[in-house]
Amino acid sequence: MGKFIHETDITGYNILSNDDLDALHEATLQLMEDYGLQMHGKEALDILAGAGCEVDYENDRVKFPRNLVNDAIEKCPAEFTLCGRTPDKDTLIGGKKVAYKNFGTGVFIFDPYTGELRESTKEDLGNVARFIDAIPEIDVFSIAVTAGDVNQKVRSLHEAEVVFNNLTKNFAHDLEGVKNTQRFIDMAAAIQGGYDKLRERPIVAMGACPNSPLEINENETSIIILSARHGLPIDILSMGLCGATTPATLAGTLVCTNAEILGGIVLAQIVNPGNKILYGSSTTIMDMKTAQSPVGAPEHAMCSAAVGQLGHYYGIPTNVGGT
């Protein structure tokens, strides 16, 4: 699978033409070059400035030279393995391969014994992880429900602990703060027998979410930097909301979210050239009547289909939510 190519043998729902792909990429480059992104965190700003970006430290605004963006795309592996505890639990992603991951981060659960709708617990998460681990149709696990019954400052570590004790598949996790992220990586390294072993066979995939429109906060830039230094796969996933946090048109939204994701990719590839990247999207529309984000909306599927095509165009594995 190459870079910036027009594939003609992809079956399925191709919402974008070859000209559309070229136009979206060019519009994204213009946006990143002329307007830029807000990228928070001095370490991230210093890294980007050192690579040739124009950085306004007072306003945390970064403008990206187009050659730097294209180079970062070129450095992303076209396929790689999301490793499980043992090779039989590995999942190869990229190209035309399709893998499945559960949707997640629910805060309520229907009690399986009483039918009551209640706040989810750490025990619930462990049970769900063990259940999904046994389902052959699901390849990768992400936090299905949150642990609402623990200290919320370290909730993500409680969640990691109970998942690690009930899962043999690859574990995709989003965390808050550098300290918690490092502790999570420490846990994974302990399981694998050291940081070098974890780099060789990363049993975890890290998550980083930009804030639409056109912003990546310090928590996310720090996670990208730390994860890249450890050589861990990073899912940079935008959750734009058409008509609210991104333009009302799908084309405008795709340009906006593309710029956000590519901004994170540039940072990761500067820190660790060749770092494994998932191009992620869980973008949908805002329901103008209720101000909610309908994950089941047709426009969500359209955005996800477009992201799949962009992934083929860039030669980067993609991850779309809610499909």
UniProtKB/TrEMBL annotation:
It comes from the Bacteria. The keyword Lyase does not apply. The keyword Translocase does not apply. Gene3D superfamilies: Trimethylamine methyltransferase-like. InterPro entries: MttB-like_sf, MTTB_MeTrfase. Keywords: Methyltransferase, Transferase. GO terms for biological process: methanogenesis; methylation. GO terms for molecular function: methyltransferase activity. Signal peptide: none annotated. Belongs to the trimethylamine methyltransferase family. This is Trimethylamine methyltransferase. The lineage of its organism: Bacteria, Bacillati, Bacillota, Clostridia, Eubacteriales.
